[in-house]
Design brief:
alpha+beta, five-stranded mixed sheet
Length: 222
């Protein structure tokens, strides 16, 4: 009976030993999960999470063309290296801004600068001068001088020609027609013709002058 008890105890002890060896075997670990193993941190509201810059996410911006026609456009070159034509255009454009547009009242006053009708060669001893008002006859009057000498102090202009002769000096003969007034409707309007002794037309023109302004023609005696 004692032997039987010893055998039973040995059997129980042997079974327990094998059971401990089975329990001691390591159990395989599950595959690592990046999402589960990643440490999660709370986002700081005062320091927002910044994204890592990427060269593939850079937005391309097209350069805007420069409109040189707009006022205030500039050149990268110093003024002394600019083309003369460009400098001239800049100066003229700047001056044009200060020019006051011509009004109908200005046109009615006539030209305020001397009108030079040119130089003409003429043969003979005298020249025949004809003058008239080529527009509405409104009382325009002129004086005529030759080389500074008064030939006609006051001529009342009509729609028909009035003529007179002047003696020609050798060389240059400068004839000045001076507007004495502008009649009842400005400006002083007149037409003149110059003929040589043979009746050939040497010069002809018209003027629209303000009071006191001259129209000039030069006859060169050959």
């Amino acid at each position: 009976m004692r032997r039987i008890s010893i055998l039973i105890l040995l059997s129980i002890f042997t079974v327990q030993m094998y059971g401990q060896e089975d329990n001691a075997k390591p159990t395989p670990l599950p595959p690592a999960d990046n999402e589960s193993n990643t440490e999660t941190t709370k986002e700081n509201p005062y320091f927002p999470k910044s994204e890592t810059p990427s060269l593939t996410n850079i937005k391309k911006t097209e350069p805007k063309p420069v409109d040189f026609s707009r006022e205030g456009s500039f050149s990268m070159l110093p003024e002394e290296f600019l083309d003369r034509g460009e400098l001239y255009h800049k100066k003229v454009s700047k001056n044009l801004k200060s020019v006051t547009p011509e009004t109908p009242e200005d046109r009615n006053q006539g030209s305020k600068t001397t009108q030079n009708f040119g130089d003409f060669r003429i043969n003979g001893l005298v020249a025949n001068i004809l003058v008239r008002d080529h527009q509405y006859q409104d009382g325009d009057r002129v004086s005529i001088t030759v080389n500074g000498e008064i030939k006609k102090a006051d001529i009342y202009l009509e729609n028909s020609f009035k003529g007179f002769k002047i003696k020609l000096a050798d060389g240059f003969n400068k004839i000045d027609f001076t507007a004495l007034n502008q009649g009842t409707s400005g400006p002083n309007t007149a037409e003149f013709h110059v003929y040589d002794e043979a009746g050939n037309l040497v010069s002809a023109n018209v003027w629209n002058l303000a009071t006191g302004v001259k129209a000039t023609v030069v006859l060169i005696k050959e």
